[in-house]
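Worked example 3. Consider a protein that binds S-adenosylmethionine.
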Amino acid sequence: MQSLTQGRTMASWTIPRPFVKWAGGKRQLVDLLLKNAPVSFNRYLEPFIGGGALLFNILPHNAIISDINPELINAYKVIAKDPEGLLASLRLHRNEEEYFYQVRGMDISNMSEIERASRFIFLNKTCFNGLYRENSKGKFNVPFGRYKNPNIDDGDNLRAISSYLNGSKIEILCQDYKTTAGMAKAGDFVYFDPPYHPISQTASFTRYAKGDFAASDQEALAETFHSLSKKGCHLMLSNSNVPFIRELYKEFNVIEIEASRFINCKADKRGKGLYEVLVKNYD
Ligand SMILES: C[S@@+](CC[C@H](N)C(=O)[O-])C[C@H]1O[C@@H](n2cnc3c(N)ncnc32)[C@H](O)[C@@H]1O
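Given these inputs, the predicted complex is written out as structure tokens:
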């Protein structure tokens, strides 16, 4: 059994933070998520890990983290296995537009795991808004971000993440969320943070890798949520606050939460409102 604050108080090294900017990342909502998480649980499972904002705040000592994005999961694994090799490779990159497009266009099929992780982190730190988006052929297609001083080789943080992942029992897997959900047992805490259901037809971003997360995927996820709840898992899920999602989880505790959202294509036009829900199968 582990408690919500255990990892944080046991940490004696630099506290790790997400190493990538991630669309839908939960950094802004972490305090609220922590307030709503169960106080104690067996294992921690996060099947849509992305940047791992909640993971790095809970720092569970026994967990399974997974995502469908192979480049993201490869980066977690390389950070765990060889942070110094990764840092050496990251230091070779240059924050220059022409170089960025060269790296973006590289064929990754013959690259080593370190080279792939290094490319992935470099592109994330230097691309526009830290987005990860692929075209229909599965090729990363976000443009250069023109940042003055991106922190490409953040040694303190990568070493901190590596110590944490190695000092705890953390399984890192590249797989569909259903496979990870199938590994959950009674008493485990599972946090689901899927691609959100769009608020409008055009507004939201649901495409992280080849293939979308469609309405039928949201329905299938809700079925998984129902069956894990029957199994005796502690469950928490984030999504957008739309009637379709509220209907799928109406038997559970659905909390409408205030979040900011772009309401205009201009970056400064952010609107606050009850745009998201947090669903729990406990009080
Ligand atoms: C909203 S993001 C998670 C953000 C994360 N909580 C954070 O703090 O950065 C959703 C994630 O789900 C992943 N994903 C999309 N479809 C998936 C699937 N079928 N199975 C597992 N992961 C999936 C995406 O690659 C993306 O990383």
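Take a moment to read the result before moving on. Residues 108 and 116 are 7 Å apart (CA to CA). The two ends are 20 Å apart (CA to CA).
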